[in-house]
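# step 3/5: fold
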Amino acid sequence: MMFMENHESHTRALHYIAAAIDAAQHALPHERLLVEAVSAWVRHDPLASLGAFDAALEIEPRWLAVARLMQTRRIGCGDWAGMLRTLLPVLAANHDDAHALGMTAFAYEQCHLLDRAEAAARRAIGLNRNEVWAQHALAHALETTGRIDEGITTLRALSDGWVGLNSFMHTHIWWHLALFMLDRERYDEVLALFDSQIWGIDKTYSQDQAGAVAMLARLEGYGVPVGQRWDDVADHLAGRVDDHVEPFLDLHYVYGLARTGRPQARDLVASMAAHAEMLTGAARAPWAEVAVPLARGLLKLGEGEARAAVPLFAQTRSRWNEIGGSHAQRDLFEQLYIRALIEAGDLGAAQQLVELRRLARPHVAPTHRLLARLYEGLGLRDLGAAATATAQRLAADAA
């Protein structure tokens, strides 16, 4: 029920967890800990949930299904070091298991231990070519290190195995391929992937909706017209006003609704604030102190009030890790922050952020094109011309 990620499924989960708690008195210790972990998850108590997951895996480190649940929950709260700490003993107990290697590869990558991430992912794929979570971790490592063409070639070569996946994993691994193609300015191909693989597998599912919002926003940030695609996505976001399963998801819903001028965008932000006020303990801060103000910033940006959006992005930026999602997914908010700065006329602040992006990944032509615009606007025409020349060279090399 919890993986359905909506308000109705959470209500139904309360019924099932009550039955599980009653039955757990007859269970083994690690099984009771699993019930405890899921019960705390349903009650919005992340620290208790993760503690119980960890305790269960300490007793039974071969329990890979529980390890995957633990990883999902830590993705939701951005506890990357904790994820790696728990998975290393799991990997030691399952050293030749491709899925254990894939999970650990992702944890390494999110901790920015990229060499270790790539090695673990490639070993997993060597054991099982179709281990998609390892492929996903490898895609992250290649993207973070700026190996764009290798990312395209690698994922294309593996894509024949992307069958029989759930809608999230199907759409998300294609989403990663599309990210590489965006960096190579292959926009027609990205739009084709959006229509055939990223959006439309299950339009009712939360993660598919978030992925669609993120891809359309990135395309628009690169100056690509997306036609009527926003309206179709927003039609499916309109019923999300009271869900509040993960702050990461709500933030995508807010921007998708605001971008299309839907009144539900304001309703969702108000509902998020009310939800945050009801939470206690460790669950409250990510919602009240990070997600709600960032949601207000996204709402302002979507409504064309970039100057009002900028301080809301700025005040939360150092804590975006707390709202969940991988760093590749959260990069959407960085891109929207840069867009808000530009629309607000603060080209100097935008230049600072975009140059840092260029230093981290120097072979991305759209980054140089954006720098060219910024330097032209700042009166630094020689730097603008140099950025334009670099973008043209990168595009020619990729052709």
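# step 4/5: annotate
The chain has a mean pLDDT of 95.
# step 5/5: archive (pending)
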